[in-house]
Specification:
Length: 252
Amino acid sequence: MPKVILKVENIYKSYGKLTVLKGISFQVNQGETTVIIGPSGTGKSTLLTCINQLTPPDKGHIWLEETEITNPETNINMIRSSIGMVFQLFNLFTHLTVLDNVRLGLIVVKKIPKDRATNICLEKLKLVGLVDKIDAYPAELSGGQQQRVSIARALAMNPKLILFDEPTSALDPELIGEVLNVMIKLAESGMTMVVVSHEMGFARAVANDIIFMENGVIVEEGKPDILFHHPQNPRTREFLHKITELYGGKSE
């Protein structure tokens, strides 16, 4: 049987009287990519921050392999070092070079010696095509390059799982492809990923599982070929039809 890397069970999250997540459950197997789609404001990003405990859920349980992340006794810092996170707006340190941005977590969190950390970072920067930019600062890079640095930073920590929160939505159209190409390579290499994305072409190409969310619930879940071509829920069909009309199915 496939090894389960992430298990999310009955997650609820509210902000005041607004309930954002209403009993979300799913799991992700090792080496697989789950893509979460749906309208804006439906709780997709909140779900990701619940998974790495940046936003603790109000109710429910989350496991990373055999460790329950939501157990109060769990060392959250240890867990976060095993879960990479790539944000919409890059979240790079503007005063640090590319190399230092990628290397910081290895030195501070994992206590890896600087020389060894540097070698790891150079390997990951080469993977994302930016080894020639190690001395550059974020302001000297394009948005696509900055996002690739943030992916290298996540990879450097050797995570068991990487979460991507709409990684291309802040990019100019001509820069989206360079980030998606890196993510496709990661999927093909067997990285376990959960991706919130508006890029339907990417979802079709790499996802093992698609989750369509709306109003804080999972409306439908399935394999790409089935969900895109034979959705069972009328709301899923309506959502995908609008995407196809507006963008030819390439993106939301």
